[in-house]
Amino acid sequence: MAKVVVGVSGINAVDNPGPGIGVARSLREDSGLDVEIVGLAYDAMEPGIYMDWIVDGSYLMPYPNGGGEAYIERLLYIKEKRGLDCVIPNLDAELPLYIKSAEVLAGHGIATFLPSMEQFRLRGKDRLEDVAVATGLELPQTEVVTGLDTLIKAIEKIGLPVMVKGAFYKAHRAHTQAEAIGYYHQMVAEWGYPVIVQQVVSGDELNVVGLGDGEGNSLGLVGVKKLWITAQGKIWTGVTMRNEPMLRAAEQFVRSFRWRGPFELECIVSGDDVYLIEINPRFPAWSYLATGVGVNLPSQLVRRMMKMPAIPVPEYQAGKLFVRYSYELVTEMTAFQKIVTQGENP
Predict the structure, then answer these.
(1) Minimal CA–CA distance to 200: which of 89, 103, 277, 254?
(2) Distance between terminal CA atoms of the chain?
(3) Among 2, 63, 173, 283, which is most exposed with the fewest C-beta within 10 angstroms?
(4) Which residues contact 55 (CB under 8 A, 6 or more apart)?
(5) What's the topology of domain 141-199?
(6) What CA–CA distance (Å, rounded) separates 142 from 198?
(7) Which positions ≥6 away from 88 have C-beta within 8 Å?
(8) What residue segments make up the domains of the chain, in order of their start?
């Protein structure tokens, strides 16, 4: 079998980890794939650069802003230097550029498997109602606000406490109107409008990771219950769950929107009600758990990109524990010196 060179971003395995290391580990564990992992990093201190038993070589990337010309040029440079057959972008900020540039990259022999821009926009918290209706999930009472007066009206309508959220990032629980106003100004300054005000729903936090084939079919789903989360809201300990209403909703999400690529649905389950809280249009940081219970979604993704046969997806077991841990690595300074001075550690 020919070697497949896969670019993987999000290798910042820190206290707020990206998905990249879990994705790379998953690819390593498919015995039917001969993969070479190229880490796409944004900072010389990203630990994945130095984890050479998982990542074969790393390159510093420019931030994917502006027109993205420098970013695409960097990918083509990597393609020329060591080959690059496909890329798995794992950070929200990268996806618009990759979606826009998918045809250009394909013309240079770099495959991607991404949602359309319209699908990508579904991640906006102001679009959650559309998804909830299509999938049969509940939605916490939600108001989209674009001014201080509408914020106050939303608080009065929903009642305290409320969640104050950016349209795409960040969320804070406000127990008083003054707190809500403070968070509102913070969100506007950081992310702009609109700001979302949402009812606080109590229950178990359950998430599901999945992969859609773009034709309405699921290539695998795994659900997890959060047992312990970090201050950044990342799962540190979790357990696989088979909440059938949530899994059916995820299948309906793929079917209704013909989702293409990886995704995560974040939900809160209260009794028989499953509330949709957030959509992430990429692999989550905990997605290695799915591989650990036999559902290797990154492998399925690469096989789809490279037009290779899919692997059968088994029924996963509930009750499998996921524990994240810290690990110390001592190595030579050579890799650090190369990435700082040359922008690469090939």
Answers:
(1) 277
(2) 23
(3) 2
(4) 8, 11, 21, 24, 37, 38, 39, 48, 49
(5) Dna Ligase; domain 1 (3.30.1490)
(6) 4
(7) 6, 7, 8, 9, 23, 283, 298, 301, 302
(8) 4-113+328-345, 141-199
The fraction of the chain above a pLDDT of 70, given in percent, is 100
CA distance 40 to 34: 19
| Dist. CA 70–CA 78, nearest whole Å | 12
Tokens of 149: 């007066």
Do 4-113+328-345 and 141-199 show the same overall fold? no
Say yes or no to pLDDT of 124 above 90.
Answer: no
Q: Give 123-128 contacts, CB < 8 A, sequence gap 24+.
A: 123/92, 123/168, 123/278, 123/279, 123/280, 123/281, 124/167, 124/168, 125/165, 125/166, 125/167, 125/168, 125/196, 125/198, 125/278, 126/167, 126/194, 126/196, 128/276, 128/277, 128/278, 128/279
pLDDT value for 220:
97
Domain 4-113+328-345 has CATH 3.40.50.20: yes
Count of CA atoms in the C-beta half-sphere (13 A) of 211: 23
Comparing CA positions, the residue from 177, 208, 215, 198 lying closest to residue 318 is 208
